[in-house]
Amino acid sequence: MDLRIKTSLVTPLVQTEGSDSSTGIPTVRIMKREMIHEGKIAKYPIYTGNGFRGLLHRELAFYFLTGAEDLSQTNYHLNAAGGGSNFQAQTLEIVRKIRGLNPIVSLFGASLAVSGRLINTEFTPTQFFWSDSEKHPDQKYSRLIKRAPYAKVDDLIGSGTEYASLVSDDLREIYNETVIDTQEERANERKNKSETKTKKETIQSWNEFEYIIAGAELMAYTSSKKELTQLEKGALLKGLSLAVRRQLGGFESKGYGVAEFTIESIDENGIARNVITSRKNEANIFKPIVETFYNTEEREAVEAFETFVKNRTKENYNIDEILVAKK
């Protein structure tokens, strides 16, 4: 099953890679890649395939495991994240048994025991909007990447302690004026030996973070190493229909990572057909409008997987009882 995933950002997207202070301001960096463009090294933003794969895996596992009884922590992680490294490579007989019992583990893999069948590319921009770098004449940067300030704040303008709060320029100006007033009040209190003491207005540090701007369009592909079974196809499609309802990346509580999706099936002639779409809900952007356009084979696969989940037993998810652990 070959699928193309297109996404258009409704709100900015942040997927952090690390931080540095090369500009003099501590900055949280987002994931980027490099390419050669017009003889220059050009940097552009991405959203990793592993990031989306992890989201897809978690949403599908949550759907599969809801209401599961006697589910150990080990089996939860084997189903939802692929598990740790407690299991060695298994015999072909055991691998086949697990694939037959659990299509999710078959799709995503489990530690060294079972290899996953899904292949995911990174989400890369469909348009880059290059800009020359003044600091590095031999480089170009995508204008899809912007920066915003945030602060670690203590008692900012009497609002209590806040951490990693986004601060606008207007708020920063008000804050600076408040600091001056507070300093004058404290100086007068010291001069008059007053018993009262005005509380300090303090900021721990001004920082910045990078983000991909709203409106940016990204694209990725997903496929499989081998032909998927009906249950595996159904699991993949069901998982995608759940994942497109979620936010991508970090800063979710600040509303980042809302996106629209178009997932297309690509046939052997390269012709695309819509399979799943999600569109912005004007009433609530966090609850997108999702539609499916399954053909007969896809609909039957999804229905077969949904029936499988309804009838699942402990044997289907307690797979550590089958796997051979490291000695």
Structure description:
With 327 residues, this protein is of the alpha+beta class. The chain is 30% helix and 29% strand. It is built from 8 helices and 16 strands. A hairpin with a 6-residue loop joins strand 2 and strand 3 (27-30). Helix 1 crosses helix 6. The two termini are 37 Å apart. Residues 154-167 have low confidence and may be disordered.
Summarize the structure.
This protein has 327 residues and is an alpha+beta fold. The chain contains eight helices and 16 strands.
Quantity of strands, as a count: 16
Shape: globular
- SSE pattern, N- to C-terminal: EEEEEHHHHEEEEEEHEEHEEEHH
Separation, N- and C-terminal Cα atoms: 37 Å
β-sheet strand percentage: 25-35%
Measured as a percent range, the helix fraction is 25-40%
Low-pLDDT runs: 154-167
Category from helices, strands and their pairing: alpha+beta
Largest β sheet strand count, sense and barrel closure: 7 strands, antiparallel
Give the averaged pLDDT, no decimals: 86
Q: Radius of gyration in whole Å, from Cα?
A: 25 Å
- How many individual helices? 8
